[in-house]
Amino acid sequence: MLEVKETGLQSMLEKAISEAKENHTARMISMTKKVNKTNPLLFIEAGKKLSVDRTFWSSTSENFSIAGIGCAHEINAKSNRMEEAEEAWQKLRDEAIIHNPYKTSGTGLVTMGGMSFDPLMQKTSLWKNFSHLSLTIPEMLLTQSDDNCYLTTNVKVNADDQAAELAQRLNKMERMLLNPSINLPGEVGIEMKQEIDPETWKQTVTYATDYIKQNYAKKIVLARKLFVKLSDEAAVSSVLKKLIEQQPNSYVFAFERNGDCFLGASPERLVKQENDEVLSTCLAGTAPRGKTKEEDDRIAHSLLYDEKNRSEHDFVVKMIRQSMEHYCRAVNVPDKPVIYPLKNLQHLYTPVTAVLNERYSIFDIIERLHPTPALGGVPRDESLAFIREHEQLDRGWYGAPVGWMDSNRNGEFAVAIRSGLIQGDKASLFAGCGIVQDSNPDEEYKETGIKFLPMLSVLGGGNHESH
Ligand SMILES: C=C(O[C@H]1C=CC=C(C(=O)O)[C@@H]1O)C(=O)O
Ligand SMILES: [Mg+2]
Description:
This protein is an alpha+beta fold. The protein has 2 domains: 2-177, no CATH class; 190-253 and 266-458, Anthranilate synthase (4-Layer Sandwich). Helices cover 32% and strands 34% of the residues. It is built from 11 helices and 24 strands. Strands 1, 2, 3, 4, 6, 9, 10, 11, 12, 13, 14, 20, 23 and 24 form a 14-stranded mixed β-sheet that branches. Bound molecules: ligand ISC and magnesium ion. Ligand ISC is lined by residues 221, 223, 268, 283-286, 312, 347, 374-375, 417-418, 431-434, 451.
């Protein structure tokens, strides 16, 4: 990567164009500057006018967000997807001309995106706009970290581009996106909710417990879908605002592809990297919140000592520990879980810290960790085969890693749960649960019901039980 000191956009473009002419190849330039404090959701809303894909990530507990508009470059990968994606990202990074005087994570050349849960599953039309892996480098990127905001402009320059014209277009786009005089659109409501055949789903849970009792697998995570018809087209910016307000301790994300938008508020970190320090999270085992402090404490206490939930959780801890030990040193995993409280439910939670060995990257960790037994099962291959055969659902990007990385070995990926695919005035919500030997179909059905609530409530229907 070529780090440059110049600050003028036009002069950087001129330099890149002349290099593109010399080398007969396009050049990516990335230029970062500090801007006045800006609401990232207004930035996202302003981007709607451009009819391009928008991207959003926020870590609500850290006061950190990245909002992206448009796409300067997309990394797509299919069969050997993590390896292909890493190669493409490295090449792009090595060849980019970067001006970023700031050390803040998530500024400069950043790529954001996700992948499907299972690359071996045939895509259905529901997820037609989402490829098996897609990471984009947004054209305009607003990074908000505590009280600071940074704007990064990324553009791929060709030999026949005109620097002055390009600079003018980008400046105009910047002014439009940072224009604070727009409002977030109003809320939508839910017109109709439709569960997909509850009895068949419960029957599948029974198959899974039988399968486990016969020793073919130890844990299998099964998901289901809730279809929702909205009163109007949902505005991504307003839905994100509500998710941020209502779901502390979560990663709020949105990825638009051709008008469809996959978004959610996931409490589950897959991996965070800051230079060579990595964090992961074991999150599995679920109970509702209590209505009073006493009831809440009582539920939390019984969750901590409940054998079925502890076994769901312990499979995840064991697998994540082993995976981290493969690529990291100083892997630290506490002996027992603690409670992770969320608005609508509480989980068993074990944090994992480690130091990444030099020759490995966040791609290696994602590849090894996904899917953890919080979304797949144990053993991995057997549980995935069961899911493929019996689940009757195209998970698409649900349950898969989504996140971002920058060119300075920082990045974070969450597991895309508590999420839904919004297509105009329709939404498909997804929720799953870990099935172990003593799972009860009705209880698991109820558990998935609570897991729909975070999304239902931001779409205007959280207070009602689903039918
Ligand atoms: C699969 C989901 O949750 C996972 C994460 C936390 C707890 C889980 C559980 O207790 O079953 C699931 O493994 C989901 O929310 O769709
Ligand atoms: Mg569970």
